[in-house]
Design goal:
By secondary structure, the protein is an alpha/beta fold. The chain is built from eleven helices and 14 strands.
Length: 304
C-alpha cells in the first residue's frame, strides 16, 4: 500500500489558451512537510486549488488521500484542512468565536485543544480585526485544524508577516508535523523552504523544474561554499584563482564559489594566514533556486 497522501500525474490546467499548470507529476508522502516554491504566477495556487477540488484540471490525474479529485470531491473535502493565502474570517468576532464558528460547521468539539495547539488561548477574546498578522495566521491555522484533518494545505501562510511572526508560524507548522499531520505548503520564501520542508518542488511557468529533498537540492544546485571578500585586493586575487566561479553580490563584494570542500578549506587557510577580511557562507536554498532559475524572488514573490 502506498504511503503517499497525494499522487499527481500529467496534471495540466489551461485558462483561455494560457497554460497555468503544464503536465506536472509529483507525490506527497504521509507525515512530511512538502513545499511548492516559485514566483507569483508559477501555478502554485492553481495546483493547490485543483487538489482541494476548487478547480478542475484540463487533463491529467490527481488523487488526494486515495480519492480522485474529479470523482470524489465531497470525500476529499471532508478529510483536508485548507488555509488560503487570503482566508476569510469575521472581523468583529473574537479569535475564539471564529474558531468555534468553524467547529459548529464541522460538528467538532475540540476547540479548546486546537486553540492551545496553535497558541490562540492567550488572546482568544480579542476581536480578529485587532490582532497582529502573526496572531491572525494562528487563528487561520486553528480554523484549518478544527476538522481534525490529517492533510493540511497552507497557501503562502507567512506572506506579509514580520520576521518574528514568521518564525512563530514556523514553530507552529513544525508542531503540526510532530503531531503526525502532513503539510502541503506553498511559499516564495527560500529561508522558509529550507527551515520547514522535507522535500520541495520548484515550479516555474507551470512546470516543475526539479523535486527533491532540501539536502539534495542544496547539495546538487547550491554551488558549494561561498567566500565573500571584504575589499581586500590580496584576497580578491587568490579567490579568483582558486574558486570555481566568481561574481559580485548586491553590495559589490566579490564572491567565490568552491564546489570542492577540500579546496575551499585550503584556500581559507591561506586567506586567514594572510589576515584577509573574508566571510564564509554555506550554500542554501536561495543559492539553489538562483542556479536553477537564473533569478531570485523578492519580498513580493516576483522573479528578479
Amino acid at each position: 500500500m502506498s504511503d503517499n497522501v497525494i499522487d499527481v500525474e500529467g496534471l495540466t490546467k489551461l485558462y483561455d489558451g494560457t497554460t497555468a499548470v503544464d503536465n506536472i507529476s509529483f507525490s506527497v508522502r504521509e507525515g512530511e512537510i512538502f513545499s511548492m516554491v516559485g514566483p507569483n504566477g508559477a501555478g502554485k495556487t492553481t495546483t493547490v486549488e485543483i487538489l482541494e477540488c476548487i478547480r478542475t484540471p484540463t487533463s491529467g490525474n490527481a488523487e488526494v488521500l486515495g480519492h480522485d479529485v474529479m470523482k470524489d470531491e465531497d470525500r476529499i473535502k471532508e478529510k483536508i484542512g485548507v488555509m488560503p493565502q487570503n482566508f476569510n474570517t469575521f472581523e468583529r468576532l473574537s479569535a475564539e468565536e471564529n474558531i468555534r464558528l468553524m467547529a459548529d460547521l464541522y460538528g467538532s468539539k475540540n476547540v479548546e485543544e486546537v486553540m492551545k495547539m496553535v497558541g490562540v488561548t492567550d488572546f482568544k477574546d480579542k476581536k480578529f480585526s485587532e490582532l497582529s498578522g502573526g496572531m491572525q495566521t494562528k487563528v487561520g491555522i486553528g480554523m484549518t485544524l478544527i476538522s481534525n484533518a490529517d492533510l493540511l494545505f497552507l497557501d503562502e501562510p507567512t506572506t506579509g508577516l514580520d520576521p518574528h511572526a514568521r518564525r512563530e508560524t514556523w514553530k507552529l507548522i513544525k508542531r503540526l508535523k510532530r503531531t503526525g499531520k502532513t503539510v502541503f505548503l506553498t511559499t516564495h520564501y527560500m529561508e522558509e523552504v529550507e527551515e520547514l520542508s522535507d522535500r520541495a518542488a520548484v515550479l516555474i511557468d507551470g512546470r516543475i523544474e526539479v523535486i527533491d529533498s532540501i539536502e539534495n537540492l542544496i547539495r546538487d544546485y547550491g554551488g558549494g561554499i561561498k567566500v565573500v571578500v571584504r575589499k581586500d585586493e590580496k584576497a580578491v586575487e587568490l579567490v579568483k584563482e582558486k574558486s570555481d566561479e566568481v561574481f559580485k553580490n548586491e553590495s559589490g563584494e566579490l564572491v567565490g564559489i568552491f564546489d570542492n570542500k577540500k579546496r575551499a578549506r585550503k584556500a581559507l587557510v591561506t586567506l586567514f594566514q594572510m589576515d584577509c577580511d573574508v566571510e564564509v557562507k554555506e550554500a542554501g536554498m536561495e543559492d539553489a533556486f538562483i542556479r536553477l532559475t537564473g533569478g531570485k524572488l523578492d519580498e513580493e514573490g516576483e522573479l528578479v
